[in-house]
């Protein structure tokens, strides 16, 4: 069954508002497809609809993917032959990602592309439909892959097919299956007490090296790893943003305690995730720690230089963070979990949503709601106390 859709648009030929008609129908997958007719009289549009229904009943359009037409063009000429997904990913999509994105993003897209090539790479672009994508999700789930990883693979494929549509090698983007995050691990974050215990366990001033004649010598704690954890808990910056900062990014005279600029670093192929720089204010504790770090005797333009070569930056502080959690006796946490902790504590203190988005560098508030706005049981009890809500058991309920 097909039907007419009427819209009022300005006809560029007559410079008047006229009726613009298009034919709509549902394909075998239940999706609404559309073919534009243009600016016609109602009787001409009805004649075109009757002719189209006759062709539709004969099965002529059931297996043909017609594109959604635009007002400027009532028909789109599709290529007679389309490349396979493998050819398109290797010759067009991946070189484009490597040229326009950071190295870490390219590595992520390349890993997803290899999976796509292995499972559906032999299919032409025009043959990739909802049913094949649903089979892809089933195959990945059977391999024991987490749903989050499957979502990343589908995102890579969506970007590649969007590029194919833009280049005219594909009629339209197919419908993608929904992959629920029912196997997502709960986000780990630290409360105020755990954060203080972690910093104390990693503080280099609390473990001075000394000479021993027997037994195991005391471990020497890395001061830069302690500074990185302190910066993450005080600013909410991502691990990549922290380790790519230079001393020129610290603006000591701006704001109350100074600010730290989070901007692009083209010389090391590092770019801000949301593609726009931001200024993160420093706390008094962090400013004091940065002033002390300048006197640690390492000549480098990087705030966090590599221990082997001060001319380059260090790559990670995850291992030192794990060791610090073990010494503090708390559950292990990832560097990104420190960002969770920062956002959770600000949200619990009533920080405005817009301010939190600007400080943390988020584009969508949905991410903030679903991931970062954690509320602990203690914070809920404190909120109820301030509101005057009595949550003690009434008399008689505890006797049974």
Describe the structure.
It is a single chain. The protein is elongated. A hairpin with a 5-residue loop joins strand 2 (16-26) and strand 3 (32-39). It has a 3-stranded antiparallel β-sheet with strand order 1-2-3, with helices on one face. A 3-stranded antiparallel β-sheet has the order 4-5-6. The chain starts with a strand and ends in a 13-residue tail after the last helix. It is mostly helical and 400 residues long. It has 14 helices and 6 strands. The model is unreliable at 62-80 and 393-400 (pLDDT under 50). Helix 2 packs antiparallel against helix 3 (103-120). The chain is 44% helix and 10% strand. It has helices spanning 42-57, 85-100, 103-120, 130-142, 147-166, 192-202, 223-235, 239-243, 284-293, 318-328, 335-348, 353-360, 365-372, 377-387, and strands spanning 2-11, 16-26, 32-39, 250-251, 259-262, 278-281.
Secondary structure: elements and pairs:
Blueprint: E1 2-11, E2 16-26, E3 32-39, H1 42-57, H2 85-100, H3 103-120, H4 130-142, H5 147-166, H6 192-202, H7 223-235, H8 239-243, E4 250-251, E5 259-262, E6 278-281, H9 284-293, H10 318-328, H11 335-348, H12 353-360, H13 365-372, H14 377-387
Antiparallel strand pairs: 1-2, 2-3, 4-5, 5-6
Helix pairs in contact: 2-3, 3-5, 6-10, 7-9, 7-11
Number of strands: 6
Order of strands, main sheet, comes to 1-2-3
- Determine the number of helices (DSSP H or I, runs of at least 4 residues): 14
Structural class: mainly alpha
Based on CA atoms alone, the radius of gyration comes out at: 29 Å
List segments where confidence is low: pLDDT < 50 over at least 5 consecutive residues. Answer: 62-80, 393-400
Q: What's the shape?
A: elongated
Strand content: 5-15%
- List the secondary-structure elements in sequence, H or E: EEEHHHHHHHHEEEHHHHHH
N-end to C-end Cα span: 65 Å
Report the major sheet: 3 strands, antiparallel
Helical percentage: 40-55%
Average pLDDT: 80
